[in-house]
Amino acid sequence: MKYIDEYRNGRLARDIARQIALTADPARSYHFMEFCGGHTHVISRYGLEDLLPDNVRMVHGPGCPVCVLPIGRIGAAIALAMRPEITLCTYGDLMRVRDKNGWSLLKAKAAGADIRMVYSTLDALKIAEAEPQREVVFFAIGFETTTPPTALVLKTAIAKGLGNFSIFCNHVLTPAAIHSILESPDVSKPGTIKIDGFIGPAHVSAVIGTKPYEFFAEKFRKPVVVAGFEPLDVIQAVLMLVRQINDGRHVVENQYIRAVTRLGNVKAQAEVANFFELRESFEWRGLGELPLSGLRLRPRYAAYDAENRFSMVTVTAEDNPACECGSILRGVQKPADCKLFGRVCTPDTPMGSCMVSSEGACAAHWTYGRFRTKARQPDAGRAVA
Amino acid sequence: MNMMMEAYSRNLDVANGHVDLSHGAGGRAMGQLIEGIFHKAFDNIWLRAGNDQSAFTVPGGRMVMSTDGYVVSPLFFPGGNIGSLAVHGTINDIAMAAARPLYLSASFIIEEGFPLADLERIAESMGVASRGAGVPIITGDTKVVERGKADGVFISTSGVGVVPDGLDLRADAARPGDAVILSGSIGDHGIAVMSKRENLEFDAAVVSDSAALHGLVTAMVEAGGRQIRLMRDPTRGGIAATLNEIASQSKVGFHIDEEAIPVKPEVAAACELLGVDPLNVANEGKLVAVAAPEGAKAILAAMRAHPLGREAAVVGHVVADDDCFVQMATSFGGGRIVDWLSGEQLPRIC
């Protein structure tokens, strides 16, 4: 498979792993946070942590847009979808997330709501065109990667004069979340939680470039390597981070040179800026209210803003108090540290944000890695050799 | 077909007509439909007898019986359709007991307005599949429901078969040290169906692997029947679900090797596009066998000599594990669990 097999070569990965083992200073430890859920998924799915020496550890970050969407916004979407005139279009993995009453879009669909799973924003637009008697709302979520397609679909809807199409905007921003993590007391106070560097998400940087991370690298003295989502990309990024730490450097490096530049996709940025503006604050599930971390439609596009058009109400709702997702999203705790993990909280019955999407840290650990937790116990089952 | 049937079956406009409620009402129209489409496609001596049931001779030995419902969407996909799938699926369920399938029944629930031409295509492919497999459809049922109360057509098939003497395959029979043998590449059927699904259409040179596996099973049994502990066809949920089922029923674990599992490049590419794992994707013409280590080599050789098992491979082995984990060594030298799918297979956002 052109452009995929090249980045899944096991022999090359083992070569890079050997280089990491040779390069890492045995007298020190290295903790790297992969911000993006896509990286978490790849690390778990390919068992990459098994290739790293014991003193090089990965810390899973908050970068799963489904996981960080607050329960209240899910509840608002479900309430909207239950209105008879509404057709709600959504990406697949949002369907399972529960609101404070235990309802999900899947459950609402079974109860009669017109909820349609789509694979792109344009699929939602096609529905609006084909069914002009319906009010079609696209449930827009995601980081900077998925925002340009939402801008594009709005542009197209306006050009076509579609009056029955609108957006429920939940787009959030990566730099704001990284900033919040680095400034949280857990991370900023010495000795509490160690993050020595970041693996930055390549798809986000394909849009915003690598430049927005330069500020963090400098201010917090943490190296950042923007990396692709293939296993070889990730393991190469780890080697690049180890080298920076050894050299005492803290700059932004670009592992994903095949698609990412320093300035990113300027045209996409302009389209986003035309349609969206910053919210003063946006709630992140597990992290709380983060200033300037979310986007909404500009007032001139209010007619296409479902929140405005349908007077949507979002009610803040708390996660289970025993849930440790907040700590897990900041890298302070690991999934298996949470007492709900694997007992009442599994991918089939997710209690907290890290378990709701397959890209969440808890879901990834449950699905791919829980034999390791078992292996640490005295009566352990055998792990793969 | 008798003369009277021939006389009124001329009124069945297969090319342009649609199923209406009268086709399920038990009257003349229903007779036309059954004679003109089903009996014509399935033609055999049992159906020609025209009874509400079929009598057949029961050979000696242990009988197996299986039934399954088919609700696939879309109804037609590369490499097959709901009809051929319904025949192959039930034959395979019987064959997984190492049994020789003997007879099938077929029940149709058809939505009002369904094109007769499509129904004929489906029935003809069932006839071809059952004749090809040597397993006749000897009885059946037809119901028509109002528009909106079904999705085109639903088919249920049941089958009976007989197990050769001395064989007793059971779900709890896997033992540590046993070999896990897979008959070929995974995910072909699921990707072929998804490639034609509404809102998801994409170009993929993948056809369904839908096939009747009893011939392959016969070859395996001849090569080492008593060494076969159990067999399963990994349909919905893919081989991940099948291995987890066996693990929990036999109270063992599995160690499998990612590099040993054949996945066609085009299937792998489609899985990437959709964000799904080929281990969770459905198959309709593949089997997983757990065999005692001393018999694995001969069974594998017999499978590879059969057209439906050319790519057969030992993909892992059974281990003792109270947690019943299915663990996989990845192509990178790391380890991971292969878990059940949680809920419906949903694509990731990014």
UniProtKB/TrEMBL annotation, chain A:
In terms of InterPro entries, this protein maps to:
Hyd_form_HypD, HypD_1, HypD_2_sf
Transmembrane region(s): none
State the source organism's domain of life. Bacteria
From the broadest rank down, the organism's phylogenetic lineage runs: Bacteria, Pseudomonadati, Pseudomonadota, Alphaproteobacteria, Hyphomicrobiales
In Gene Ontology terms, what is a biological process of this protein?
Answer: protein maturation
The family assignment reads: Belongs to the HypD family.
The protein's name = Hydrogenase maturation factor
Q: Specify whether Iron is a keyword of the entry.
A: yes
| Keywords of this entry | Iron, Metal-binding, Plasmid
Which Pfam families does the UniProt entry name for this protein? HypD
> Which GO molecular function terms does the record list?
4 iron, 4 sulfur cluster binding; carbon monoxide binding; iron ion binding
